[in-house]
């Protein structure tokens, strides 16, 4: 099981003005689990359609997960204070590879 602290946003796009939430993500036999301060949800492995990773405005890696019910953006963090986040570059890459392995 892979687990890490993240920031995430559920929605069609991510910009510098987007309000992201702080939380935790883990991958288990059921799929991708995300737990925030006010919400907890599961994206079943069978529902994941596409996983992509890109550099967000040159600031850090962000993972985009397209699934049957919409889109999720997430990245592993070292520290998050308010809307300021330090992205963990290597941990985000590890999460991306784990999601790719799970979705294939």
Secondary-structure element pattern, one letter each: EEEEEEEEH
| C-alpha termini separation | 17 Å
Q: How many distinct beta strands?
A: 8
The number of helical segments is: 1
Instruction: Name the CATH homologous superfamily.
Output: Pleckstrin-homology domain (PH domain)/Phosphotyrosine-binding domain (PTB)
Shape category? globular
Radius of gyration: 12 Å
Regions with little confidence, pLDDT below 50 for 5+ residues: none
**How many structurally independent domains?**
1
- Share of residues in strands: over 45%
The CATH architecture comes to Roll
Question: What's this model, at a glance?
Answer:
The chain is mainly β and 104 residues long. It has one helix at 89-103; strands spanning 2-10, 21-27, 31-36, 40-44, 48-56, 60-67, 70-81, 84-87.
Describe the overall structure.
It is a single chain. The chain is mainly beta. It has a single domain (2-103), classed as Roll (PH-domain like), CATH 2.30.29.30. The protein is 14% helix and 58% strand. It is built from one helix and eight strands, in the order ββββββββα. Strands 1, 2, 3, 4, 5, 6, 7 and 8 form an eight-stranded antiparallel beta sheet that branches. A hairpin with a 2-residue loop joins strand 7 (70-81) and strand 8 (84-87). The chain is globular, with a radius of gyration of 12 Å. The protein starts with a strand and ends with a helix.
